[in-house]
Design a protein that fits this description.
This is Transketolase. By secondary structure, the chain is of the alpha/beta class. It contains ten helices and five strands, in the order αααβααβαβααβαβα. The chain is globular and about 50 Å long. Thiamine diphosphate binds next to helix 3.
Length: about 290
Amino acid sequence: MLATDLEQVEVWRALRAQLEDASAADRDALLAEKARLTRRSIITMISTAGQGHVGGDLSVTDILTTLYAYTLRIDPANPTLAGRDRFILSKGHCAGALYTTLAHSGYFEPAELNTFMAPLSSLNGHPNRNKVPGVETNTGPLGHGLPVAVGQAMAAKLSKNDARIFVVMGDGEMQEGSNWEALMTASQYKLDNLVAIVDRNRLQQGGRTEDTNALDPLDERLASFGCEVRVIDGHSYAELVEAFAPSTTGKPVAIIANTVKGKGVSFIEDRVEWHHKVPSAEQVLLALQELS
Ligand SMILES: Cc1ncc(C[n+]2csc(CCOP(=O)(O)OP(=O)(O)O)c2C)c(N)n1
Ligand SMILES: [Mg+2]
């Protein structure tokens, strides 16, 4: 198991404190800066590993940054804290974005990111809860994270703790029927402590979602399955912060976060071939320049 990085935990705590007192504009600027560093780290990590899912990592970065820096009630120095909020990255192929966010929050040393996908590294292509502190459940096969999150939300209710359970699915992932079964259960048991976020970048592995197995009208579909639906810009910190507020209706919250796959790097943005393409040395320099 990787060890806590206490220095990074202090950096995380200082940012948390700063964010608590910040005006909305300052908060958004602080989150933008954190996300910029995370995106740079993702590019470097994937380039070093020669593998990874750069498009989906970059589309989910602002969601992860807002959750870990601002919203989640967690303590990176104590990853198994009783009553903590839970986060599950159901689109487990974007492990790179999760590892980077966890390392930059102090769950383990950022230097470990250089081992991403190397033999014997804990940082495998998909997150493993037995290897990486902060990972709440193993994911990778699409369609499993939300059902587990529903179980965790039920468990929190049964234990009478007020933990909230956040889960991110890819939009292509919503084609898996298990998600819709899970939503039926979440709605039946009034799991208003569940926040199901769809990273709506409109691309899946081999094409656009709407050309493959169309999801729209996704908002109406989620509402008809009993969710309180919030549709936001998934790169707006102000909208993310507001959307992560507790349910007001007693229903599970479903957030459609409209995002751009590859967000932040012009030649990667909204291009299907960048689902898991690896940037060349020249492209890495260009990407880091755009993220400087
Ligand atoms: C059950 C299952 N089928 C296929 C795959 C292979 N796979 C990995 S990522 C992916 C596309 C996912 O698209 P989306 O959910 O939209 O993710 P994003 O666009 O955020 O990368 C597929 C088909 C998988 N991981 N699990
Ligand atoms: Mg997608």
